[in-house]
Amino acid sequence: MRIRQRPANGPGAPAASGWRLALVGPAVLVGVVMVVFGVLFWTLPAPAQTKPVRTDPASIAAGETLYDLHCSACHGIGGVGAKGPPLLGVGPAAVDFFLSTGRMPLASPNDEPVSGPPFFNPDQIADIVAYINYVDTVHGTPGPGIPDVTPPCDVETASCPTLSEGNSLFLLNCAQCHDASGAGGMLSHGYVVPSLRQATPTQIAEAIRIGPRPMPNFGPGQFTNQQVSAIADYITYLVHTKNPGGLGIAYFGPVPEGFVAIIFGLGVLLLVSRFIGNRG
After folding, report:
1. How far is CA 248 from CA 132, 179, 216, 256, in A?
2. For the chain, which ranges sit under pLDDT 50?
3. Quick one: pLDDT at residue 145?
4. pLDDT value at position 39?
5. C-beta of residue 230 within 8 angstroms of C-beta of residue 153
6. Residue 236 domain-assigned?
7. Statement to judge: residues 197 and 234 lie in one domain
8. Which of 80, 140, 138, 71 is nearest to 107 (CA)?
9. Which among 108, 203, 261, 265 is placed 20 to 30 Å from 234, CA to CA?
């Protein structure tokens, strides 16, 4: 006896094809959502990257000892402030900047912080940063972290800066005070704009974020992490590249360079004319 098979698409056929059709819509929706999130992930600016800070108890204890010995007289025990401003909430970037550039500690709280050779070695600075960061964490007032500067790239992306981007940002926001060559200058009220020619990329990025007086600070709302890295990379390139024009004359600018050219140029012409005249 022959057994008749059911038609594949007949009334008695399995409902598998219906289930497949029902799954097509959700699958397409999930795919679209994944594509959208993927595009957003690659186009949104990368979050600010910071260097890690020591958190081991030994470093924190060593930093506390150094702080109590050299800093507490002005900034108070635990950074609460005394003769000097409080340090609660300043963050690792500010502590590392002022210590690594030699601006702190001061001989007197009335002195103006100026850059110079650091008083502490890098290991001691890292310990003091660890202690202040620990105090900030306990009080719930963490400040800006130490920026991790990204090296320049040939092609600009959302997380990779270029020297051309840094050049544009520096000329627009920094050159008015620091000079186009980074040589520094003078401001009113006796403020001295320091030269950037000895600053490290990290110190440049820290200064952008914390704004040491009289410089304003630029938070993530003004400069992204990429833009901070671009400026730091450009300044580093600017001060370490060879001068294609020959002698830079300390990068004082076109007016002093013009005086030098006139004095030496006219002096040479005078000597040559005198020599020719004597021979005639």
Report:
1. 42, 14, 29, 11
2. 1, 3, 13, 36-48
3. 95
4. 44
5. no
6. yes
7. yes
8. 71
9. 261
